[in-house]
Write a structure and sequence with these properties.
Layout lengths: L9 H5 L3 E4 L16 E2 L20 H21 L2 H4 L5 H12 L6 H7 L5 E7 L6 E8 L3 E8 L9 E6 L10 E2 L2 E2 L16 H11 L13 H11 L9 E7 L8 E4 L3 E16 L4 E4 L4 H4 L6 E15 L5 E12 L1
Parallel strand pairs: 2-3
Antiparallel strand pairs: 1-12, 3-4, 4-5, 5-6, 7-8, 9-11, 10-11, 11-13, 13-14
Helix pairs in contact: 6-7
Length: 337
């Protein structure tokens, strides 16, 4: 997957369908040895009197090597549009999105196609390494301007290899993460922090799409640009198709349901999977929906009901006081039926 942020691509390329009468009716710059840019954060909590010094899931050197490998392999995969090669370094939600991008390559503009294979490097690296477990978070800059937050995991879900499973692009750096002796502090996914538990983030964000935030999504801060963007998608969900069709969002099962957490001074950063189906239904007999260019990649046949399948991820800050803030979210349409 290319490492540029860009606008949230949700509605622009997914909803361009039409209702009509049819059928009978009609790495080189980021070597691991550069200590100034490759670092773990300084400790943000007292050391205390705990006896054994905790150890991160990997060392700082190993984390850099994992990121270097990803950078090198991803650049090669992007240049050749090789999904199989990309699958050696990506898994989960991210790989589902990346494969979809490759499947939809011909729908991209000429400039987007040209830019797709441009190489990138990770600079200004910071790693958040929990004690034990099977994952860690990396924060870096790509192409000089794009700020990215990534999760790498080594588990049965990744073929027991270190693979990147999340790629997000918040507008600003993460708030300080609590660490002790270079080891990042995590939080239980089931424990409520302020208004919401980390394991409830997926349902809360998806509720903004499904109901405009009248249920689980009521807990979220709606004043942020990301929340406003989702609510705009909800309010304008039927705009492209007009009054002869109904468009609805329904929460779906993510490719991987794991939630990742990091403690901050005032709350918990949560990285959670997202998934929903966008259903477009023609309301009059004889009307069918002609899929847009992305949906047509998977099924170009006009039909009374289209179901577009989306997978994604979100980064949400759960403060101890106040409402949870959506720092970033990413989706890709991965199927249409």
């Amino acid at each position: 997957m290319p490492h540029t942020a860009g606008p949230h691509p949700y509605a622009a390329r997914s909803a361009a369908a039409a209702v009509g009468l049819v059928a009978a009716l009609s790495l080189t710059g980021c070597a691991s040895g550069a200590p100034s840019s490759d670092r773990a954060p300084a400790s943000h909590q007292p050391t205390g009197t705990a006896s054994p010094v905790p150890r991160g899931v990997v060392t700082l050197s190993q984390a850099n090597q994992i990121l270097d490998t990803y950078q090198e392999v991803n650049n090669r995969a992007n240049a050749t549009r090789d999904a199989k090669l990309l699958g050696t370094v990506e898994a989960g939600q991210l790989y589902a999105r990346s494969k979809a991008e490759l499947e939809q390559f011909e729908t991209l503009s000429e400039k987007e196609q040209k830019d797709y294979g441009k190489p990138f490097t990770f600079t200004d690296r910071t790693f958040y390494l929990p004690a034990g477990g099977n994952w860690f978070v990396a924060q870096a800059t790509t192409t000089g301007t794009n700020h990215t937050v990534m999760v790498f995991e080594k588990s049965s879900a990744t073929g027991n290899r270190w693979k990147k499973v999340v790629s997000l692009f918040p507008d600003k750096a993460l708030p300080p993460v609590q660490t002790q002796d270079g080891v990042a502090s995590t939080a239980p996914a089931a424990t409520t922090v302020g208004a919401l538990a980390p394991e409830g983030v997926t349902a809360a964000v998806e509720d903004l799409f499904a109901t405009g935030g009248t249920r689980q999504g009521a807990a979220l801060d709606r004043t942020s640009e990301n929340a406003k963007s989702i609510l705009k998608t909800y309010k304008e969900r039927g705009k492209n198709l007009g009054p002869r069709a109904k468009v609805s969002f329904f929460p779906a099962t993510p490719v991987e349901e794991k939630v990742y957490t990091l403690r901050t001074r005032d709350g918990v950063l949560t990285i959670a999977p997202l998934a929903h189906n966008q259903e477009s239904l023609a309301l009059q007999p004889g009307l069918q929906i002609t899929p847009g260019k992305v949906g047509a990649v998977y099924n170009k046949s006009p039909r009374p009901l289209t179901v577009d399948v989306f997978q994604g991820e979100a980064l949400v800050l759960l403060p101890e006081k106040g409402q949870p803030d959506i720092l970033d979210y990413r989706y890709a349409q991965i199927d249409s039926r």
